[in-house]
Design brief:
Blueprint (H helix, E strand, L loop, with lengths): L1 H13 L8 E5 H11 L1 H21 L5 E6 L2 E2 L4 E2 L8 E9 L4 H65 L7 H36 L5 E5 L2 H5 L8 H11 L1 H22 L5 E8 L8 E8 L8 H44 L5 H17 L5 H36 L7
Parallel strand pairs: 1-6
Antiparallel strand pairs: 2-5, 3-4, 5-7, 7-8
Length: about 425
């Protein structure tokens, strides 16, 4: 009976910790390729770029000429409808609006600037979603490693409870001890359920980013490449210079400032009235028959010289310039804090003994046997299980935190410095 009980205790350690599920094994490169090809938000933003390019085409167009025509409806003297010949009257006018003060060119420049803004927004969306993708990808990987610890301990305790239930009442095992083991089992199951819900939420986010079918995601991670990451590889000044040049949210702020300046120039040009040139023909309604004339029309800027819009455009320049300064300050702080975080996690990571996890796995099995043989008490047995779980979870948390710090540096510099 003792040998059978030992076998039941060791059995969970001999089998895989995770149940067999329908999962998608995918590497980071493949995930990013799927994202760029299938993500609906990116596809929608591409249509926005096309729409802005169409506005450039529209801005290049000249206003259409205007043709007006009139013919007498009823001749009161001859009592005729639509009379023709000497009793009829026909007039026509052809006019063309001409923009002055370079309005057309200024409109084209604004439209082109909006195209560039839409492109920056597109690349910023890629940057943001890719960061979310990579964060979820690695988080799922480390959380599943943690889940395997729970699964292993739960499986072991379930076998212990089953074996103890079979022996309960025969004098080998006390009921108090069985209850204590069951309480530990239920606590682990509750923690494991919370962890699996967290994993499922992250997988749901990742499936939406990748636009893939509803299946579990099994991230394939190159742990050797991750271990080689080093925060000393790039100095802070290099990271900041890259952020100034490549942070798309900063480029968006700069482009908004540029657009506001272009709009200010355009609003000032609107203070200059446009001119309309015309050709006119009148058959019998003027002082002579078959009257021909050329004319011009222009608004007199006595009241409105677009003063309000000009003032508003000037204020928008100040607003966007201030926002740009704020964005630049945010960039600097983001990069500095991320690098600081990378150094902090690297320091913690280097303190981890690489043999620690293997030693704990070996001791775990020995503790199971020694507990069954009564060489250790139930308190020592459960304390070791708690220590094993907490230490493995802490190691996974440190490894994910370290990797997240490098991912943040990539995100905040707008450059894949640590794209392993």
């Amino acid at each position: 009976m003792q040998k059978i009980l030992i076998f039941l205790l060791i059995l969970p350690a001999l089998v895989s910790g995770q149940p067999v599920t329908d999962s998608l094994r995918i590497g980071l490169d493949s995930a990013e390729a799927l994202f760029l090809r299938q993500n609906y938000q990116l596809l929608a933003q591409e249509y926005n770029i096309d729409a802005q390019k169409a506005q450039v085409i529209q801005a290049r167009l000249f206003p259409n000429p205007n043709l007006s025509f009139a013919h007498v409806l009823y001749q009161t003297e001859t009592k005729e409808f639509f009379p023709i010949g000497p009793n009829g009257e026909t007039s026509a006018q052809l006019s063309q609006l001409l923009y002055l003060a370079g309005k057309r060119n200024k409109q084209i420049k604004i439209a082109e600037a909006n195209v560039k803004l839409a492109e920056y927004q597109f690349f910023d969306l890629i940057r943001t979603l890719k960061f979310e993708l990579r964060s979820d990808f690695f988080n799922i990987y480390y959380l599943k490693k943690s889940a395997s610890v729970y699964n292993e301990e739960i499986s072991s305790l379930q076998q212990v409870v089953k074996a103890f239930n079979d022996q309960l009442g025969k004098g080998y095992i006390s009921e108090k001890e069985v209850v204590r083991i069951k309480a530990q089992l239920y606590a682990l199951q509750a923690e494991y359920n919370s962890l699996t819900n967290q994993i499922n939420d992250l997988e749901s986010e990742l499936r939406l980013i990748l636009q893939i079918k509803k299946s579990a995601i099994d991230p394939q991670v190159d742990t050797m490449a991750i271990a080689m990451l080093n925060p000393n590889q790039y100095p802070l000044n290099m990271l900041l210079d890259s952020a100034y040049k490549n942070r798309t949210d900063l480029l968006i702020a700069r482009q908004n400032t540029q657009i506001s300046k272009l709009n200010y120039n355009y609003q000032k040009s609107l203070a200059v009235p446009d001119i309309t040139l015309s050709l006119e023909y009148d058959k019998a309604g003027s002082y002579i028959t078959n009257y021909n004339a050329i004319g011009a029309a222009i608004d007199l800027p006595f009241f409105s010289r677009n003063q309000g819009n000009i003032k508003s455009a000037k204020s928008m320049i100040d607003f966007n310039q201030t926002s740009e300064k704020g964005a630049q300050a945010t960039v600097e702080e983001n990069v500095f804090r991320s690098l600081q975080k990378a150094f902090d996690f690297e320091k913690m990571y280097l303190t981890i003994d690489p043999t620690f996890s293997g030693d704990f796995n070996r001791l775990l099995h020995e503790v199971l046997v020694n507990y069954q043989r009564r060489n250790i008490s139930i308190l020592d047995f459960l304390d070791f299980y708690d220590s094993y779980k907490e230490n493995i979870l802490q190691i996974n948390s440190i490894q994910f935190g370290r990797l997240s710090a490098f991912e943040e540096l990539n995100f905040y510099t707008g450059t894949n410095f640590y794209n392993k």
